[in-house]
Write a structure and sequence with these properties.
Its EC number is 2.4.-.-. It comes from Streptomyces andamanensis. Keywords: Glycosyltransferase, Transferase. Helix content is 41%, strand content 15%. It is built from 16 helices and 13 strands. A seven-stranded parallel β-sheet has the order 3-2-1-4-5-6-7, sandwiched between helices. β4, α3 and β5 form a beta-alpha-beta unit. α2 packs across α3 and α8 crosses α14. The protein is globular, with a radius of gyration of 21 Å. The two termini are 33 Å apart.
Length: 373
């Protein structure tokens, strides 16, 4: 691979995720990758919420806002947005900002940032949770449509996300919708963790990594694994969410090994110590960055072909139906026994992940910002 080139800086962005610092999720990791660190890929004033628990170690360039009342609906949501706007007005000098990067089409940070800096160009980045919450909450659907109208450009990582967005907000000017895939940290592509040699092939070591919320579908591989010999499951997830799975694990008799909620370098090491990543999402994935990071580390992927994943992974992984126990058993047995299949999938995964370097994502966003300012 050619030497990495840092993207040319665009105008300084103002950007905000109204999640407590240290929260899990792919959108959080992308946010930190792009806007924070000693030499951020995109120069920005980047904000998250101050956590109520002890403050985690913060990356350089991340500022915290102490605002309570995070919610989704009703008069309380309006008060929450107003409080966020007041905090942003105090924290930001508008003269230092060239463009707004709205990290969601929904939630409180987006309308607060729009109202705090009403005269700046706006780039909205769409994540899967935007569409899921807009479908479930009327006020969030209103915010999504309002933001889509106000944005000068709407960035989606996949065509599937664009299609889903246009169903929720059919009045969007389609010329504003731009496809920019999310990226994998370049150093992971050039210097992935080494994979220890397998000393035994008697068991297939599966890994689930991510939140355990309903749309992630983690209960399906657990119930599907219950009758299967020769398969081991590890779970890397937030602790409270894993504990909530205890009744299901007990009922099915599945002995899942809990790895904790891992920092990314730890997760990358865990990728190298397993045979297959399982991705049983039930609804859609904006892009599934954990899949691409697993592939960059040489970990083959078994996935539910929901919108987004079927576009990003395609033939570089194995599609299955986690809700159909016979199909899951067949595909797991094939992964465990077919000669040469796992090495071939590792090579296909490496090649797929290499298509999505993070610097390319940052460069495309910087170019878009320059066009709008």
């Amino acid at each position: 691979m050619s030497p990495l080139v840092r993207p040319a800086a665009g105008p300084q962005a103002a950007t905000f995720l109204d999640l407590p610092a240290g929260s899990p999720g792919g959108s959080v990791e992308l946010f930190l990758d792009l806007y924070t660190g000693d030499k951020p890929l995109i120069p920005a004033r980047a904000f998250m919420l101050a956590p109520t628990r002890p403050k985690p170690r913060l990356p350089a360039g991340l500022d915290l806002l102490t605002v309570a009342g995070k919610c989704l609906e009703g008069a309380a949501f309006s008060r929450y947005v107003a409080a966020l706007r007041r905090a942003l007005v105090t924290a930001i000098d508008p003269a230092q900002i060239g463009v707004l990067h709205l990290q969601h089409l929904t939630f409180g940070a987006t309308p607060a940032l729009l109202r705090a800096l009403p005269a700046h160009p706006r780039i909205a980045l769409v994540h899967g949770t935007d569409l899921i919450f807009a479908e479930a909450h009327r006020d969030q659907l209103h915010i999504l449509r309002e933001t889509a109208r106000a944005a000068d450009a709407i960035v989606v990582p996949t065509g599937a996300m664009a299609d889903r967005l246009l169903k929720l907000a059919p009045q969007i000017d389609r010329r504003k919708v731009v496809r920019i895939p999310w990226g994998v940290p370049d150093h992971l592509l050039t210097d992935p963790p080494s994979r220890p040699a397998r000393t035994s092939t008697s068991h297939l070591r599966l890994l689930y990594a991510g939140r355990l919320t309903a749309e992630k579908g983690a209960e399906h591989p657990i119930t599907g694994l219950a009758p299967l010999p020769g398969v081991e499951l590890s779970i890397a997830a937030p602790r409270a969410q894993f504990h909530a799975l205890a009744p299901l694990l007990q009922r099915t008799g599945v002995q899942a090994r809990y790895l904790g909620w891992l920092r990314r370098p730890q997760l990358w090491k865990a990728f190298a110590e397993h045979d297959v990543l399982v991705m049983p999402s039930t609804t859609l994935e904006a892009m599934g960055p954990v899949v691409l990071e697993a592939q960059a580390c040489g970990l083959p992927v078994l996935y539910q072909p929901v919108p987004g994943l079927n576009e990003v992974v395609a033939a570089s992984g194995v599609a299955t139906d986690f809700t159909h126990s016979a199909a899951l058993a067949r595909d797991l047995n094939r992964l465990r026994t077919a000669p040469g299949l796992l090495p071939a999938l590792r090579q296909a995964g490496y090649a797929n992940a290499a298509r999505y370097p993070l610097t390319t994502t940052a460069q495309a966003l910087a170019d878009l910002g320059r066009q709008l300012t």
